Amino acid sequence: MSENKTENNTIYVFIDASNLWAALKAKGKFIDFEKATKYIKEEFSGTTIKVFYYTAYPAEGTRSYSLDGRHKFFTFLKKGLGFEVIKKELKRISIVDEHGEAIEEKGNMDVEITIDAMHHLGKYNVAVFFTGDSDFLALVTYLRNYEKKVFIFSSKNNVSQELRTSADGYIDILNLEVIWGKNLKHRAELKKEHK
Fold first, then answer.
1. With the CA atoms of 23, 188, 183 and 195 taken in that order, what torsion angle do they form, in degrees rounded to the nearest 10?
2. For a Cys staple, 11 with which of 23, 69, 126, 142, CB 3.0–4.6 Å?
3. Helix, strand, coil proportions of the chain in percent (round to 5)?
4. What 3-state DSSP class applies to 27?
């Protein structure tokens, strides 16, 4: 079988979970990643697709609620959908100012996403980024210089103008009904359901 570019169209998807959170809150729903993967594969005529999901999660004991559901979700993405899940614990930083001491949490995954996109450069033709972060502008430019097609999936209030216009295409996920799943529920609503 020949490795002809017209026959082989591999898509790599890079999902920045923390950047996606604003869109989920705006829509009031979760993304159905099975539907989203199917849509992307069909939309960009992919022969194969590989999805990377990047997330930072709270350290055990730092929340008043259980984190079991989140870890089950990561397992579903990995085992159920075949995603590559890259996760790390949120870094807790003590900040002292005139109001006293506070804990700030950071879980930026930009470096991990960039390293993976560059490390796998020879394996894909199309890169899809679920992010709106302008920090990815240099990466998008780099990939396009290597003749990769790059598409940004984000939402109008969460995407930088530079990133939106630097890619081969931009899709506002708030208007993409086909990828949305269950309604987002607040913890208070979930507690009521379980009583």
1. 160
2. 126
3. 40, 30, 30
4. helix
CATH number for the domain running over 10-193: 3.40.50.1010
Amino acid at residue number 143: L
Q: Which two tokens stand for residue 159?
A: 């995407």
172-181: pLDDT as tens digits: 999 999 999 9
> Can you give the pTM of this predicted structure?
0.87
> Between the CA of residue 17 and those of 35, 52, 53, 125, 135, what are the distances in Å?
17, 10, 7, 23, 15
| Residue 1 confidence (pLDDT) above 60 | no
CB 86 within 8 A of CB 112: yes
C-alpha span between 161 and 173 (Å, rounded): 16
Taking CB atoms within 8 Å and a gap of at least 24, the contacts of 97-106 are: 105/58, 106/56
Chain segment 60-107, per-residue pLDDT in tens: 778 877 778 888 999 999 999 999 999 998 888 888 888 888 878 788
Buried b (16+ CB within 10 A) or exposed e, 17-33: bbbbeebbeebebebeb
Of 8-17, 97-106, 126-135, where does mean pLDDT reach its minimum?
97-106
